[in-house]
Amino acid sequence: MDDAGAAARRYRTLLISQGSALSEYLEVLENQRQAILRDDGDALEVYADMGEGLAAAIESTGKALKSLEALGVPEDGEISRLRTDLRDIEARALERNGENRKLLLDRMAGIRQRLGTLQNPYRNRRSVFSQDGPVATVIKIDV
């Protein structure tokens, strides 16, 4: 029972320390949305990387909660609050991810459309390098 108690204390400490990651994830998703609207690819990449790390932290929080439940540790106010927050944030994160995905797909469609309308100003022009005439085949270099 001593090992189970130590594990429970360790999981409880882990959960409390990762509680801030839950709210940070929603902030990162909002920042991603703003980066998509601004067409800021560099910021979007940074926020995507941050989001992956925070998503991993949220996943480990969920695993720790399941481990505490498997150990039969009674939930106190802090643990039950974290469990509720985790469920709430997962639902909100799925919603925001969907919104961000739709915005990003719309932006990508707009970019594809603009690329399709671009005209190459050099199309149908003869290149300087494709003119008819004598072409050198041997080059003499004096040193």
Summarize this, please?
With 143 residues, the protein is mainly alpha-helical. 76% of the residues lie in helices and 0% in strands.
- What is the helical fraction, as a range of percent? over 70%
Radius of gyration: 28 Å
Enumerate how many helices there are, as a single number.
Answer: 3
In round numbers, the mean pLDDT is 77
The overall number of domains is 1
Task: Report, as a whole number of angstroms, the end-to-end distance.
Answer: 89 Å
CATH architecture: Up-down Bundle
Give the CATH level 1 class.
Mainly Alpha
Task: Indicate the low-confidence ranges by residue numbers.
Answer: none
Q: Give a short account of the largest sheet.
A: none
Q: Give the DSSP E fraction (strand runs of 2 or more residues).
A: under 5%
Named CATH topology: Methane Monooxygenase Hydroxylase, Chain G, domain 1
Number of strands: 0
Please trace the helix and strand order, writing H or E for each element: HHH
Query: What general outline do the C-alpha atoms trace?
Result: elongated
Structural class: mainly alpha
Question: Any overview of this molecule?
Answer:
This protein has about 140 residues and is mainly alpha-helical. The protein has one domain: Methane Monooxygenase Hydroxylase, Chain G, domain 1 (Up-down Bundle). It contains 3 helices and no strands. The chain has helices at about 1-40, 40-70, 75-115. Helix 1 (about 1-40) runs antiparallel to helix 2 and helix 1 (about 1-40) packs parallel to helix 3 (about 75-115). It is elongated and about 90 Å long. The relative contact order is 0.12.
